[in-house]
């Protein structure tokens, strides 16, 4: 079975997309074509969206599913009249929330021009800049300003996790590679010693590491399976010896790693 | 008025957080304390969550709001019995979806071990690696592999937008700075000329740019307001002359810029 799903929003549509997508994955026997329609913030755009949905309904021979996060009631009303199962991700919760809180909702779009958002924006940019400046041990200056320092062997997933922590949560995250030199001495790299309490480790299945490294440098010592096994074993031993918490990144997504570290390391997110 | 809001999930909790947070912003007169409780995936954890919510209800003297994305019905049932307004972000939509599609949902948690997810993971990592390798004009090799190349003056927001495109959508995005040398000739930087069709510009209000640059290098020519005005004016003139689409990043969040570029440049996202 094939169906089309639309995510319609007067903003970026990311919320409708995330919720809608995870709902769609609950129906494994259905093949969905997913389309995001962001910034539907005028009556004209709402009407065009309805036309697009109705055309799709005819082409598919079945009603599309439409997930909406539309705050403006007039726009919402128009989109809700499309020939589709329209699932309103906001309104369904607003009424019980108004009753619980005893106040009316403001029905205003988004929060992009609020003072809080400008602050969030700056925090995010600063966190990204910090992550980039402290990627892969590039600089160990200002590590005292880091919220967390990720360590692990090369290609264990440190960089994307660091960037996700910065972009999504505003966390100041550095990352520093553990290399074969560190395993000889079985000591932490000296620049990290003062920041032991901020360290968090990533580890990875050696076979998986071998595959990842082989894509980069096929046939190298670096990618060699025995070498990957050695590096992973030594890195884990070093982290255990030093009492540094670590997680196995092998079967986790970047979001999962970042969220797990956020909570296990008790970090305070700086943005929502 | 002060209330506590919980986001409870058997996964990362990011979906519950995004939806819940945007619903909370509709109630501007209420101050919310927001707490995310991820990976609630056992009966024991569910019971501990209920205790935490009930304790908070007592301390606050008011029921918390609880946004859940819990797939396991047993866990869901336990959490729903907390002394709170529990808003189930999944179940409320699952029933109408089952009716519309004529199939039962699988009620399985997440998608982290599916084949699709491993593919998504690789695509995301590759996109991040590409973005890092091609940040700020670092390398212009392989620009033919870019989905999009962001251009703009220094500190106009290119880097975080590039990284967001990579992490969230799997887009291969490079970025390249426009510098005063480019404005003398009013020509595109030569390495960009073959990729004109992939270029997308960011611009920014000169006063805002002045503030941002002043934080970095106070009192410098670089941060000087007149220089910022010159650079922005020339960059915009160059982009107009070359027919390169551009957006004003001044009052947009990183998500908004990335989403706008995704749609206006007609990019195909590689991951959901």
From TrEMBL, chains A, B:
Keywords in alphabetical order: Kinase, Nucleotide-binding, Serine/threonine-protein kinase, Transferase
Pfam families reported in the protein's UniProt record: Kinase-PPPase (PF03618)
GO terms assigned for molecular function: ADP binding; ATP binding; phosphotransferase activity, phosphate group as acceptor; protein serine/threonine kinase activity
Keyword Transferase part of the UniProt annotation: yes
InterPro entries: Kinase-pyrophosphorylase (IPR005177), PSRP (IPR026530)
The reaction(s) this protein catalyses: [pyruvate, water dikinase] + ADP = [pyruvate, water dikinase]-phosphate + AMP + H(+); [pyruvate, water dikinase]-phosphate + phosphate + H(+) = [pyruvate, water dikinase] + diphosphate
Enzyme's top EC category: transferase
Entry EC no(s): 2.7.11.33, 2.7.4.28
Key word Transferase present: yes
Binding site for ADP: 152-159
Job of this protein: Bifunctional serine/threonine kinase and phosphorylase involved in the regulation of the phosphoenolpyruvate synthase (PEPS) by catalyzing its phosphorylation/dephosphorylation.
Family per record: Belongs to the pyruvate, phosphate/water dikinase regulatory protein family. PSRP subfamily.
Protein name as it appears in the record: Putative phosphoenolpyruvate synthase regulatory protein
Organism from which the protein derives: Pelomicrobium methylotrophicum
Classification of source organism: Bacteria, Pseudomonadati, Pseudomonadota, Hydrogenophilia, Hydrogenophilia incertae sedis
């Amino acid at each position: 079975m094939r169906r089309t799903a639309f995510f319609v929003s007067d903003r970026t549509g990311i919320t409708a997309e995330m919720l809608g997508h995870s709902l769609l994955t609950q129906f494994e026997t259905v093949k969905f074509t997913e389309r995001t329609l962001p910034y539907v913030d005028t009556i004209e755009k709402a009407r065009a969206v309805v036309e697009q949905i109705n055309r799709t309904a005819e082409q598919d021979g079945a009603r599309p599913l439409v997930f909406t996060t539309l705050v403006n009631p007039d726009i919402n009303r128009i989109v809700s009249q499309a020939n589709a199962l329209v699932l309103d991700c906001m309104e369904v919760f607003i009424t019980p929330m108004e009753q619980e809180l005893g106040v009316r909702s403001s029905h205003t779009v988004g929060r992009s021009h609020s003072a809080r958002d400008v602050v969030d924006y700056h925090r995010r940019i600063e966190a990204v800049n910090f992550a980039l400046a402290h990627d892969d041990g590039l600089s160990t200056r200002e590590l005292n300003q880091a919220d967390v320092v990720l360590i692990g062997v090369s290609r264990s997933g440190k960089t994307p996790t660091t960037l996700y922590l910065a972009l999504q949560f505003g966390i100041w995250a550095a990352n520093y590679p553990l290399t074969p030199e560190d395993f000889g001495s079985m000591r932490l790299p000296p620049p990290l010693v003062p920041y032991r309490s901020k360290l968090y480790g990533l580890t990875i299945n050696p076979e998986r590491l071998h595959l990842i490294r082989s894509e980069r440098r096929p046939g190298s010592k670096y990618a060699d399976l025995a070498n990957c096994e050695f590096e992973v074993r030594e890195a884990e031993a070093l982290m255990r010896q030093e009492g540094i918490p670590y997680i196995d990144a092998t079967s986790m997504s970047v979001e999962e790693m970042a969220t797990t570290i956020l909570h296990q390391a008790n970090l305070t997110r700086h943005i929502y």
